Amino acid sequence: MTSLRRHLAILLLPIILLGAGCGGSSEAQKLATTPVTITIWRVFDDDSTLSGIMSAYKALHPNISFSYRELRYDEYEDELIRAFAEGEGPDIFSLHNTWIGKYESLIEPMPDSLTIPYSETRGTIKKETVYTIQEEPTMSERALKSDFVDVVVEDVLRSYQANSKSDTEDRIFGLPLGMDSLALFYNKNLLNAAGIPEPPTTWTEFQDQVTQLTQINTSDSIVQAGAAIGTSQNVERAFDILSILMMQNGTQMTDSRGRATFSQETDAGFLGGEAVRFYTDFANPLKAVYTWNEDMPASFDAFTSGNTAFFFGYSYHYDLIRAANSKLNFAVSPLPQIDGGKTVNYANYWVETVAKSTNAGDWAWDFVQFAASEDRVTSYLDAANKPAALRSLINTQLENDVLSVFAGQTLTAESWYRGSDASVTEEAFLDLIDAFLEGSEQERALKDAQNKVNQSL
Length: 457
Fold this sequence. Notes:
Largest sheet: 5 strands, mixed
Structural class: alpha+beta
Shape: globular
Oligomer: single chain
CATH topology of the largest domain: D-Maltodextrin-Binding Protein, domain 2
Number of helices: 18
Distance between the termini: 39 Å
Strand content: 15-25%
């Protein structure tokens, strides 16, 4: 039993207990038998991934049904905004961890307690249905911190003020079902051919191996790329890769107010600029690590074609790579780290949250908690093949051939952007990469990127 469910079992407060098996009605009976449909919108996962959890919830609450809609990533935000504007938004919807600030005004944070009706059939000879209404405390801040990995707490626990006269308090704005982190995919055949027995564990080793693996012909064309890294437009999740390089080398990404500070000089120098230079060197023909340029195909395609040794991706890329090239001999290893530095990985995940406009009352938040609990979320993780966000499930996934790398990085995964428009920030980072490659004044380029990010807060 998870600590959340233990807390609920201990603190459960029945406030109404009325029998209604032989006629008559009660508020409890009315609430427990009134049909309620909970509408859920999510990305990437079809309804089969949550079918077990939805069935288990219906078994407890037969009056509940679900309307589940899976949307394409490229249409999701537009559809979400349109639906809410027209008063047709979902009750529960998924948000990327960097989008919470953008949609904060549309979210109803988790309340302190939920009022949930239950029905129970009692008796052996003469059966009677008893209806109760129970006031149940929701997940506490303490339980959130003990159950979930640190980055979840940092992202979902936010200041909330119900109105201008209310006190500001910390409230939970969503709960994740899983947790992903950036890792290194590698082509085993290319490493074997180059005499490289193991993938790199540090960025210094990564540079050395990229140099060994890169093949350039007499026309200065890259025949075989050591890694897909260095440019902005044809490297998938270039923003994530550059972000984690900054985070690993000690760049202060934001200050205590959440303002971006990655361009500032410290006693150790312009760490943010050093991270950008490290990244762009792989696309600089004058550097020994030159392995990539803007004329190369998209990084995913380059890797699945077998002509690129390293690709940075997430757990969901595993099945996509296998589908694109079933014969590719590849594996996954942890993200390289800085020699002797603090281990830092990059978090990428979605949270389930409840719309302020919902008509489902407390049902929606009750289901989100139910789905995210240890007892239930494992069915989703198994169906979706995703790493867990709950601390208690990490060790079990360390035995999984595919998920072990990602599960091993979960405790050290971090994120940094908590503003209101992640797309603006990503664009600023891509422009920063281009500015360095074009030879622009680097300190000015860093400050421009920082200003763009701060304008999105």
